[in-house]
């Protein structure tokens, strides 16, 4: 049986996929070494990255207003004041309520943990008459769930406290964003001259492709998350779930994560609702389901627009790797990073084809 060129190409691609998985596996094994260094670097770069994202999101609006005949600095000032003014006003109204709910949550946390442990003991008591082998497995699973829940509470509390540590860093973001918008042409020219000549044309084509693919997606996702998070907070407040604003923020953030996001966001909502009643937990679950149905069938198709055209298997793999490496943050940024990698691969392939033809 002869091995055809087609078979060789398939074998070659399988080897490449296998090598990629080996590299990812080794990367995750070395996590204790590179993660502290990466975290330190990201803390220093965080205000610049956030400022760059804000400038990237506001740039199309500035361009539209400038196209109407308004001078660029006036267009920037107008959009800047509207965006940060609205954001600042929302923070001014929301922060006191968020702090109040966080304080109430921290005060109720011991009672919540005790309520959870009593429920665990009831489950253990109801399964005590099972055969020893089954009972041993049930006890092990209950213990694992309890340990996971305790770690979740510890990580959540730590994350909330770290958020307040970043407030002083975030104060410089408006100033950085303003200068990035104002001097965008200067930044482009600097990047152009710093790039080797033979890469300039391909670099511009690559960035244009990334902007076309990700620009509308990111802006649309942010708008959809704000709408879903606000609707969730309002709905939770109406039906009487505690900490509706905090839960609405969680729903908004996790909504960015494809497939797993609704489950991650619904979990704390249902758990907190269970402290009141099973009926309230069911209603909360139904609300989350309705919101996700609206998001998936109405908001995203019209606001986010066309998808990134990636197979669900690749998206799920990216979410798993991102979650394993960086937790929730990794899951949020994994899909955009995957989209950029896809564009880079396609762009490199097209470049190689053009090079061979010439």
UniProtKB/TrEMBL annotation:
Keywords: Membrane, Transmembrane, Transmembrane helix. One of its GO terms (biological process) is transmembrane transport. It is a multi-pass membrane protein. Pfam families: AI-2E_transport (PF01594). The chain crosses the membrane at residues 12-30, 37-58, 73-95, 159-180, 216-236, 243-261, 267-291, 303-322, 328-346. Its main location: membrane. GO terms for cellular component: membrane. It is found in: Membrane. Belongs to the autoinducer-2 exporter (AI-2E) (TC 2.A.86) family. This is AI-2E family transporter.
